[in-house]
């Protein structure tokens, strides 16, 4: 696990990087160049306006970022993997679009819409699922999606809405476009699950297999094991002032906390400093000595071993991407590749959920919310395959 890779300072040598600073100036130059290129290529006026609106959203984020991250912009492993997955998927789809005689610019425009809508859908789904937790936290935590907390099915719903809007607006063949980008979705998911491993979310249950993994103190699996009495550790968190605090063992009352004075004999000057001390203890396997006003707690620096379900999911998604990419030239009807994605993924997700423990059962079914959605999707795909296979073989792009 490596949740935070590094931090980009708000200013460097007195020169502001974020806010009204260097990055905003660079963004305006790059955005202006991009809009000019769109105009030169004769892009429709609506596309240009849409591009300007999206670029303006990013500019606003740059301006207001210092208010959200006064200590610098944390670059999270989860966010980096989301970006890598998105770029890889776009490159793959653009390559196939070029093979089919479709201009890659269409893929780039579509990708922006799908990425934004997918993130919104995934985060909204997660917040609704864990609303009891978010209702007790500052509202800003709802927007911290780069720290984890995205649900794949929520992303699919959000991206699907944006996809239908985009292809109808541009008068593109819907099923053919869906087939073209289906492998890219699986590629993005594979990298996203690696991000889950770095973040410590989407974890499995206790395991003694040789490849089981242990997560560090402050990670979700560690906290879960402490709360459930499986691990005699301690729960650490940040209070409203950004200080590191120690919570009750069961985490029952987040307001009942005490400020940490020292970790392993060192007084952390900041949260980043505290994370370095904890990570050093994790890599060495040493216990963590937590000193606070209430006394001293000696806690293990690692969780009990659990199934690396993030790795299972990443391998599953990578194999699915390879299969969809390989099947594409052999399709006989538009929609077959997408149907395979929507059939194989819920089966694999249902099975992986059996060994995941981060989602509880709902609706008295004994199944997690993702398993319930997997069952619903599979039932829908029975009808989808029936409709698809009754159609005469035809392809919008027969190459």
Structure description:
The protein is α+β, with helices and mostly antiparallel strands. The chain is built from twelve helices and eleven strands. The strands form four sheets. It has a five-stranded antiparallel sheet with strand order 5-6-7-8-9. It is globular and about 75 Å long.
N- to C-terminal distance: 43 Å
Low-confidence stretches at least 5 residues in length (pLDDT < 50)?
Answer: none
Percent range for β-strand residues: 5-15%
User: Radius of gyration, Cα only, in angstroms?
Assistant: 23 Å
Count of DSSP H/I helices: 12
Order of helices and strands: EEEHHEHHHHHHEEEHEEHHEEH
Q: In what order do the strands lie side by side in the largest sheet?
A: 5-6-7-8-9
Amount of helix: 55-70%
- Biggest sheet details: 5 strands, antiparallel
Task: Provide the residue-averaged pLDDT.
Answer: 84
Structural class, please? alpha+beta
Q: What coarse outline follows from CA principal-axis ratios? A: globular
How many strand elements? Answer: 11
Salient structural properties:
399 residues, alpha+beta, 5-stranded antiparallel β-sheet, two-stranded antiparallel sheet, 12 helices, 10% strand, globular
Q: Care to give the gist of this entry?
A:
With 399 residues, this protein is an alpha+beta fold. It has 12 helices and 11 strands. It has helices spanning 22-40, 45-68, 77-99, 104-129, 131-134, 152-169, 174-199, 220-227, 271-284, 309-327, 336-353, 369-389, and strands at residues 4-8, 11-12, 15-16, 73-76, 235-238, 244-247, 258-263, 288-292, 295-299, 361-362, 367-368.
């Amino acid at each position: 696990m490596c949740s935070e890779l590094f931090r980009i300072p708000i200013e460097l040598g007195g020169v502001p990087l974020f806010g009204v600073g260097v990055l905003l100036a660079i963004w305006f130059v790059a955005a202006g160049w991009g809009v000019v290129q769109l105009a030169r290529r004769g892009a429709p006026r609506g596309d240009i306006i849409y591009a300007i609106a999206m670029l303006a959203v990013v500019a606003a984020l740059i301006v207001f970022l210092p208010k959200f991250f006064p200590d610098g912009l944390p670059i999270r492993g989860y966010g980096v993997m989301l970006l890598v997955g998105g770029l890889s998927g776009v490159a793959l789809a653009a390559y196939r679009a070029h093979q089919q005689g479709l201009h890659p610019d269409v893929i780039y425009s579509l990708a922006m819409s799908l990425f934004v809508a997918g993130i919104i859908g995934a985060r909204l789904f997660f917040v609704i699922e864990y609303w009891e937790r978010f209702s007790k936290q500052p509202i800003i935590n709802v927007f911290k999606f780069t720290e984890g907390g995205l649900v794949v099915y929520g992303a699919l719903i959000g991206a699907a809405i944006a996809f239908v809007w985009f292809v109808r607006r541009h008068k593109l063949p819907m099923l053919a476009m869906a087939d073209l980008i289906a492998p890219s979705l699986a590629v993005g998911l594979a990298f996203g699950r690696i991000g889950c491993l770095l973040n410590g979310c989407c974890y499995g249950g206790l395991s003694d297999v040789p490849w089981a993994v242990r997560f560090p103190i402050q990670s979700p699996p560690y906290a879960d094991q402490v709360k459930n009495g499986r691990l005699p550790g301690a729960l650490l968190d940040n209070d409203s002032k950004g200080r590191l605090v120690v919570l009750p063992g069961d985490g029952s009352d987040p307001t009942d906390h005490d400020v940490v004075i020292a970790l392993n004999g060192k007084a952390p000057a900041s949260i980043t400093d505290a994370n370095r001390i904890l990570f050093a203890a994790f890599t060495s396997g040493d216990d963590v000595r937590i000193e606070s006003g209430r006394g001293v707690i000696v806690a293990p620096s690692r969780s009990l071993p659990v199934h690396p379900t993030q790795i299972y999911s990443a391998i599953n998604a990578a194999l699915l991407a390879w299969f969809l990419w390989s099947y594409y030239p052999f399709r006989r009807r538009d929609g077959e590749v997408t149907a395979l994605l929507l059939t194989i993924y819920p089966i694999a997700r249902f099975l992986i959920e059996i060994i995941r423990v981060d989602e509880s059962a709902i609706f008295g079914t004994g199944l997690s919310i993702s398993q319930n959605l997997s069952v619903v999707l599979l039932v829908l795909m029975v009808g989808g395959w029936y409709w698809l296979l009754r159609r005469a073989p035809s392809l919008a792009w027969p190459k």
